[in-house]
Amino acid sequence: MAAAARFFVRGARSKLPISGVVPGPRSSFAAALLKLSPGSSSRTQRRHAAHFTFQADPEPTQYGPTTKMNMFQSVTSALDHTLASDPTAVIFGEDVAFGGVFRCTVGLRDKYGKDRVFNTPLCEQGIVGFGIGAAVAGATAIAEIQFADYIYPAFDQIVNEAAKYRYRSGNLFDCGSLTIRAPWGCVGHGSLYHSQSPEAFFAHCPGIKVVIPRSPVQAKGLLLSCIADQNPCIFFEPKILYRAAVEQVPVESYTIPLSQAEVLQEGSDVTLVAWGTQIHVLREVANMAQEKLGVSCELIDLQTILPWDVETVCKSVVKTGRLVISHEAPITGGFAAEISSTVQEQCFLNLEAPISRVCGYDTPFPHIFEPFYIPDKWKCFDAIKKMINY
Questions:
Q1: Which UniProt keywords apply (predicted)?
Q2: Is the distance from CB of 339 to CB of 261 less than 8 angstroms?
Q3: Active-site annotation holds for 124
Q4: Cα separation, 320 vs 315, whole angstroms
Q5: CATH 3.40.50.920 fits 262-389, yes or no
Q6: Active-site annotation holds for 280
Q7: Using CB atoms within 10 A as the burial measure, which of 18, 39, 79, 166 is most buried?
Q8: pLDDT tens for each residue of 139-153
Q9: Is the dihedral of CA 339, 345, 348, 349 positive or negative?
């Protein structure tokens, strides 16, 4: 009933046809987000300085020739490879037929047909429910939730159905070929309904995998791994990076292992752990700590939230004796708490200082106060100073 009510309310607000491929109310908002994202040429963008500087990884050489792509183009490339190589693959969600509000599916309906790339009603519960059914029937189902903030109506379908389907049937049936994509995280001006980071809600649920990339190269490889994985996966895409992040991305299909963290910078004094956009904040913090404090930081991108790579993180903390974890989501019950608890249990005798969590506040995500809410480089740098002086 609630989903049906939202369908009609949203339709009533819009003067555009719901069944068409013309952007609806959310699409207009997303268009505004794109215009104001870092890297945009809009004059208005000057008033929205990003809280980070994107740092591209070295060009990968192990996957063949590369070409310049931003993050949404790398996602499109991954989806294109999947549709081309897997005749059972289908992509569906709100507005995906015309390319999606962030342009991640642009051109795919024209290339592969309306039976394989198609719009759905504005009903997240229905989108995921349909995806579960399609996956159980043998299709490779790729569902898009237009914003991660709107994934909650689908929570029951994800947690009580998708995550438990294999277990409850004794492995007779499964929906492991389901992948759910969603734009995620803060964007500079998204406010409470277009800025959330809900990964911790799903990290409490056995039976699914949760993945968050930091860059175009990681986005393509990790998304292809999620699609190929035999478990339902949630793939959160940092929307502030869709255009701000540009790298040389391999042209061909490739995969990056799930549940395997990556050590981006080796160090000896403090371990820094993050994922998604926050990796780029901590990269700058690591440089600041070295220049201003003479502190050597080891930076780890967790990449997969569930199941996460305990071994890599604990091995680093045993070496450094200190740990800072940072994410945009509220601090209470955030995934940093799980990491902190595990490290404390396994590395207690190696710790030189209490573990520090630098996260969002326990409030709804604000609009004009976003610069004060986000865990920026100064908050993270201050945490390192306190830890070193402990």
A1: Mitochondrion, Oxidoreductase, Transit peptide
A2: no
A3: yes
A4: 9
A5: yes
A6: no
A7: 79
A8: 999 999 999 999 999
A9: negative
Residue 280 tokens, joined: 């780029």
| Cβ atoms 102, 34 nearer than 8 A | yes
pTM of the predicted model as reported, rounded to 2 decimal places: 0.89
What is the pLDDT averaged over residues 106-133? 98
Catalytic residue among 194, 247, 298, 328: 194
| Topology match between the domains 61-250 and 262-389 | yes
Percentage of the chain exceeding pLDDT 90: 87
Query: Do the beta carbons of residue 306 and residue 208 sit within 8 Å?
Result: yes
Which one of 3.40.50.720, 3.40.50.970, 3.40.190.10, 3.40.50.150 gives the CATH number of domain 61-250? 3.40.50.970
CA dist., res. 241 & res. 19, Å (int): 29
Residue 307: is the preceding peptide bond cis (ω within 30°)?
Answer: yes
Check 51, 81, 124, 327 and give the catalytic one.
Answer: 124
Q: How far apart are CA 31 and CA 19, in angstroms?
A: 19
Query: Both tokens of residue 118?
Result: 């198609």
* Span 54-96, pLDDT tens digits: 999 999 999 999 999 999 999 999 999 999 999 999 999 999 9
Distance CA(305)–CA(303), nearest Å, equals 6
Radius of gyration of the chain (CA): 20
Q: 48: pLDDT confidence band, cut at 50, 70 and 90?
A: low
Least confident of 11-15, 118-122, 333-337: 11-15
> Two tokens at 142?
């790729």
Q: How confident is the model at residue 50, as a pLDDT?
A: 84
